Amino acid sequence: MSSTQNVTSQANSAAILKLIIFSLIGIVFFFVPFSIGGKSTILLDHMVGFGRDVFPYQVEIYALLMILAGGIYPFISDGWQTNTTQKVLSILKLLGVVTALMSFFSIGPSLLFEKDMLPFLFSKLVVPISLIVPLGAIFLAFLLGYGLLEFFGVLLQPIMKPLFKTPGKSAIDAVASFVGSYSIGLLITNRVYNSGHYSAKEAAIIATGFSTVSATFMVIVAKTLNLMDIWNLFFWSTLLLTFLVTAITVRLPPLANLDDNKLMTDEKQTEASRIKQAVSEGLEVAKSAEPLLASMFRNFKEGMLMVMGILPSIMSVGLIGLLLAKFTPVFELLGMLFYPFAWLIQTPDPELVSKAAATGLAEMFLPSLLVTNSDFVTRFVVAQISISSILFFSASIPCILSTQIPITVKHILIIWYQRTLLTLLMSTPLAYLIHYFISK
Q1: Dihedrals phi, psi of 242, to nearest 5 degrees
Q2: CA distances (Å), origin 83, targets 58, 95, 124
Q3: pTM of the model
Q4: What is the rounded CA–CA span in Å between residue 222 and residue 347?
Q5: Is the pLDDT of residue 188 over 70?
Q6: Which of 359, 351, 355, 374 is nearest to 319 (CA)?
Q7: Which span out of 99-108, 111-120, 142-151 was modeled with the highest average pLDDT?
Q8: Is the peptide bond before 254 cis (omega within 30 degrees of 0)?
Q9: Which residues contact 118 (CB under 8 A, 6 or more apart)?
């Protein structure tokens, strides 16, 4: 064997090992529960729990520093001047800094310090998120960087056009959002749309149908609503439900009526078998991948920037949403759009479920906060709604509006209502079925 062939063979072997071993590590870390100290959950959750148990005060200080950094970052980077939406969000982040300081130092009106207000936001949401996002980002390197994403992207290509009316390459956007983040998915979508490979309709479908919160945020929702005991069942059923809802909304206005013309044609069918092509593309990525430590550091950096952007918004938009939910009829009125359907399909508490579903438009964590003490069916349905709705004003909607995808706020609001209602209708019987089997 020549030296060139030997080098090629070694490179192929190394790529195969990377694809298999690193992918398995990522899968085990995110999806395989382990029993440690009498608690059975995924490793990411164990790590967050360990950090909070061993360094409780230090973790709170770290979370506060991340909020302070996130509040001033838009003004240092001049990102606040991008458009009106970013200006509003930047002001809300400054408000988040104020509320975080109030919470940490226990300064302010007593009504803000009731257990379901600032203490809940800071201790139950902000602190775990401050740990889980950067830690999750580090280990996402194993899922995102070494071919697994592209492998599944190729395998999913045959179902994308018939189901979602998008090209096969959009499977990568979909998987990237669920195992990475909606910001990663939107970044990919905007880049491909600007290159002419997506039509306006395809880009809008992907942005509003696939760019949901990542697995790390789903862990927070599951922890908040005490669903970690059925984590894998919750995760995979939510993933399937989210994509099923997308398959329906693409056939409804306004998405169905958007411009579907584009500059580039879709990918051609390959003569190689689907599995061979999937393996080939996965191995190509593994071959050209950056070193593991570099990938983990880059992901960690992106995770820290994401935490800085998210935490101040949760403290401000989350508090505003909780105050509106508790002291005004705003979400009760908005929830009336869902109440007849919640009552018709016999959710255990149709009024509460309807109200919780409505609060998701402000912030995806708010629905969970309203049903923490509810029965299993209500908690499961609301948890799935908070993920599957995808669209909320504290993060995903501004991200979509900051892209070049031609979709209006009016379109987004209609799609949000469609997604929320469809999720409610499909999740409720599923929740009853799961409850029946796990209670036997």
Answers
A1: -60, -45
A2: 36, 19, 32
A3: 0.76
A4: 19
A5: no
A6: 359
A7: 99-108
A8: yes
A9: 99, 102, 103, 108, 112, 319
